[in-house]
Amino acid sequence: MKQIINIKKYGFSEEFSNAIPQENSLEPGRVLAQEKGFYRIIADKGEKLAEMSGKFRFQRAVSCEYPAVGDFVLVNWNESGNSAMIEALLPRKSAFIRKAAGESQKEQVVAANIDTVFLCMALNKDFNLRRLERYISIAWDSGAMPVVVLTKSDLCDDLANKFSEVSSVAFGVDILVTNSMEENGYKELLPFISEGKTIAFIGSSGVGKSTLINRLLGQEYLKTNGLRNDDKGRHTTTRRELFLLPSGGMVIDTPGMRELGMWDNDTGIERTFADIEELAVQCKFRNCTHTSEPGCAIRRALELGELQTDRWQSYQKLKAENDYMEDKESYLIAKGKREKEISKLIKKMPIKGQ
């Protein structure tokens, strides 16, 4: 295999190299951006637009098997100058996945092969602990390390209190405070960014993701907008895109998300709500529903104020949403099998008049 030069700077490690078949003549590349069916990729030979080959597209069973920003792919470079053809997707080491917005049974890979997820939340009217719990749950399931980034500290009059509130729901997660209005207000992020590592910025519109990335890039590359009259952010980022930083690390910018639906996030929910999971084990009955049973540790914690009602309700909501999606998936698989069986049965039936 030829010596890796450019792509190694973009996180192409021995782990990905070993996943390539020995009898391979395709070029490894990383997806930098995606827009309107095309991908912009980086490889040893440079940058180029690429599209999925017909064979690759046909072999994908679900949309999450399509390339996403951050993925490593094998491409036919097509030296003639036309777009390269993506022929294979290398196994992911991590993926931030949500239920696709507006779709009831489809998942969407937001970013792939990320090492750390910066979960950004502004310290103004965007501040929402329940949404943060949702973000942390999905981040833990991604395989990457979640880090909470509190932005716009200059707009907060009670920083100590807000920090304490976040600490109460972000168990085992680092919490950073930034102020993009100050020249060095982003430097809290630097210890988490290193050569060869990929960071994804996730958060609502207007929380300051693009501003922070511009600071890290050392130039005003990404367009930024101010706040609306209601103190909420305007959408500025319209696509996911990976950038190589001067420091050698990489960041992925993502559009603000109106919806962040759960998709097979049991493990993430359990880790995010470890306090509730530990309480549930202490209940007198193993199948306790936490409604009226005697000896219920959850009900007792709620009555004593040791567990906040809002947090308990948030846990119940995310669990119910996740269970619903799992049931939906099982239902669709079973439905598909039944339809195939019916189709086979119809084909075996004699045709009238014969």
The averaged pLDDT comes out at: 82
Count of β-strands: 13
| Through-space gap between termini | 62 Å
Percent range for β-strand residues: 15-25%
Q: What profile does the largest beta sheet have?
A: 6 strands, mixed
Helix content: 25-40%
Shape: globular
Oligomer: single chain
How do the helices and strands follow one another from N- to C-terminus?
HEEEHEEEEEHEHEEHEEHHHH
Radius of gyration: 23 Å
* Helical run tally: 9
Give me the side-by-side strand order of the main sheet.
Answer: 10-9-8-11-13-12
Structural class: alpha/beta
Low-confidence stretches: 227-235, 344-354
Q: Can you describe this structure in just a few lines?
A:
This protein has helices at 14-17, 54-59, 129-142, 159-167, 209-217, 266-272, 274-281, 297-304, 309-348; strands at 27-35, 38-43, 46-52, 72-76, 84-89, 95-99, 107-112, 116-122, 145-151, 174-177, 198-203, 241-244, 250-253.
Describe the structure.
Strands 10-9-8-11-13-12 form a 6-stranded mixed sheet, with helices on both faces. A 5-stranded mixed β-barrel has the order 1-2-3-5-4. Helices cover 30% and strands 21% of the residues. Mean pLDDT is 82; it is low at 227-235 and 344-354. The protein has 354 residues and is of the alpha/beta class. Helix 6 (266-272) crosses helix 7.
Present the secondary structure layout.
Layout: H1 14-17, E1 27-35, E2 38-43, E3 46-52, H2 54-59, E4 72-76, E5 84-89, E6 95-99, E7 107-112, E8 116-122, H3 129-142, E9 145-151, H4 159-167, E10 174-177, E11 198-203, H5 209-217, E12 241-244, E13 250-253, H6 266-272, H7 274-281, H8 297-304, H9 309-348
